[in-house]
Sequence to fold (477 residues):
Amino acid sequence: MNTHSKETQSSVAISKEGNNQDSLKNLNFTPKNVRTPLGIFVLASTFLLMFAGAFLVYELQPEFYQFNSDRINSNWGFAIFLVTAALFLFKGLFFLYNLYLYFRYRSIKSVSDELLPTCTVIVPAYNEGKQVWDTLMSLANSNYPEHKLQLIAIDDGSQDDTWHWMQEAKAKLGARVYIYKQPENKGKRHALYRGFKLCGTGDIFVTVDSDSVVEADTLRNLVSPFVTNENCGAVAGNVRVLNNQKSIIPKMLNVSFVMSFEFIRSVESALGSVLCTPGALAAYRKKAVFACLPEWINQTFMGQPSDIGEDRAMTNMILKQGYHVLFQRNAYVLTNVPERYKGLYKMFIRWARSNVRENINMAKFVFTKFREGSTAGTRLLFFNQWLKLIMAYPLIILMLAFVIMHPILFLTSTFFSILVVSSFPVLFYAKRYNIAESFWAYSYSILYTFGLFWITPYAIATANRRGWLTRGLTAKK
Fold:
């Protein structure tokens, strides 16, 4: 997962939430549970729309019956019906398979201090201001043997006071942190590359975004799988939202991230094939990194240097070497996310373009014997990824046709579908964390359906474009 430069976040503390088994118990960053009038209005509107949709679906049954009859009785309509039924069946079976894998997943408990490997943490930063200080302090306060932990912070040519705060961190932490400044802004990939080449003392590389903070046990939990599994090449951390009380969008993303990480990546980890180690927090075996480092830094797409998707690219290249890529649910990191729609869609465009590029790259090796043991599960994950891309344009065309011909039926069925389909993320979050916050999954689904549906088709059409899109100066406070 890539993140962008965001507003400086001051230190706050996070309390234990709900009945979560891997609670965020040690973080000293906790937002107050504030219910704003706007938030109440959004949630109330969400439920009004969904229940109104459910009611109208019931009331308009004759119209729906006539619509379905007309569709099935036409050649095109019947063909669409068959494709839709096949997709529905596949998605249903795939979901049940995911449930099975989720219940099989277990995070690895931390190994002893004696067994913990030496670890070099690399923090690339661009226009992060004081937030980089908070990041480095949270890492320095980790429950990790000090003689086995090395911190490297790299200022990627920032235009604000990021370098000043790195110097302040250096003054406080001394030899525990090394700071470097790029002569000019060259992008996150090049900043990480410099950190990798500096090599340091660690057998394990950990990358942490400079707008993120970790809890005390995060690092030791994150790297423990490398000790217990010699085939482990990379580990993804568990990403939550740091600024989730500052506006509506972070509240929604906080719930969405739990589904994306604690469910989806748990499933992928059960297959040893997490498809993307997030930029906010990831760990890599040094041997695996250096085996693909030249290819990674010189990666191109359609003749242009790749300046996005460095995390997904690294994950792909490590999977290709035959390593397992795992997820540690008990390795928490909190990261800042966009607070406005413009920043959100730009972040999603970047992620979607990276997804298009790396799915193409993954196609080059996923059907080979790239590692020992069964790879059927990995290939199924890959097929599901490609299905989303293949169906992007047909689905948007069908949606627009439905809107034009039957706008009332479209709206009512869509809101009712959101009520049904999004209830699983709601229940999942409520079980893991907090019932009241879980309802934001419904609001997020509405936002995505009506405000972000265009992202994937647009990203496919513009996959060759470069640019981070969201790297700007942090807001002054």
About this structure: The longest helix spans residues 75-104. Residues 1-23, 25-34 have pLDDT under 50 and may be disordered.
